[in-house]
Amino acid sequence: MDWVLDLRTPELTAVFRAFSFLGDPTFFLLFIPFGYWLWRTDLFTRIGLALLFSTLLNVTLKDLFQVPRPGIPHLVEAGGWAFPSGHAQIAATIWLLLALELARRWLWPLAVLLIVGVAASRVYLGVHYPADVVAGIAVGAIVAVAAWRLGRRPPTWWAGLAAAWQALAGAALVAVWALALRNTVDDTLWQAAGALLGFWIGIICQRRTVDFAVPHGWRRAAIACVLGLGVVFGLRIGLKAAFAELAVAEPIADMARYVVITLWLTWFAPWLFVVLGLAERRSPAAPEPS
After folding, report:
1. Can you tell me whether residue 213 is helix, strand or coil?
2. Does residue 286 form part of some domain?
């Protein structure tokens, strides 16, 4: 991996830091709410679930293989094991799924550029071997295709379950999965588990209580976005400080914090948008804009 050191320049470092940000949790805390609130709720429901499932799968695979990170200087912070690359896997999951869902010819080159850019950035920044990012892309692509097919044709037995049973099944899956990995060194486990749990329950509750239409008009959309994202990042920072002050165990604090954040994103924020007149309830038969 010493060959990477010879490629580093200030200009390339800035470019690859930007690409790496596209695989960071902070980026997705901006991207998913924006699409869920302002563009296509059903589409970003599938994207959000695929992202969080892929994250937990990545933690599982890293814990299984336990490959150390490269021994060269890292230009960004990175903890836990290296194989497969989480950034590359999540990038492949999200951008490939988006390309499949939207079926726009122009989107495919952009998706490839973003996936390759994120993957290359992790090698350049010194936190992954090339094999890590190749494996991450492969796993992410499998998750994306599976999520796309399930979104188009969900199993009839699942569609026939009552919402309460769907919520219970999702909660049980997340709980068992997190407990099975409780000894992992990857500190994203409890955050991802909490986010998946909150997201899962939130979308079920949102559909049953406030099936909202995305805001029309740029003013209402801008107000909803600023209000919603302000609360997202306020909860992220404020709850972390509050749990630390209360000396809550870090795994419990991380899981609880992300349950609350994703419940806000999927359920409470849409309800508030409707209450404030920023969005309207949608008829069950009304399609989402494409």
Report:
1. strand
2. no
pLDDT single digits (tens) 226-275: 999 999 999 999 999 999 999 888 888 999 999 999 999 999 999 999 98
Q: Residue type for 118, please?
A: V
Is residue 144 in a domain?
yes
Domain membership of residue 162 as a residue range: 3-281
Tokens 């094999």 sit on residue:
131
DSSP string, 64-91: HH-PPPPSSPPSS---S--SS-HHHHHH
How is 1-14 classified by DSSP, letter by letter? -THHHHH--HHHHH
- Is residue 111 domain-resident? yes
Q: How far is the C-alpha of 281 from the C-alpha of 290, rounded, in Å? A: 18
In a domain, 264, yes or no: yes
Note the pLDDT of residue 36: 93
**Residue 202: closest CA among 28, 35, 41:** 41
The SS3 assignment for 104 reads: coil
Distance CA 288, CA 225 (A): 18
Sign of the alpha-carbon torsion through 256, 260, 263, 265: negative
Structural domains in the chain (count): 1
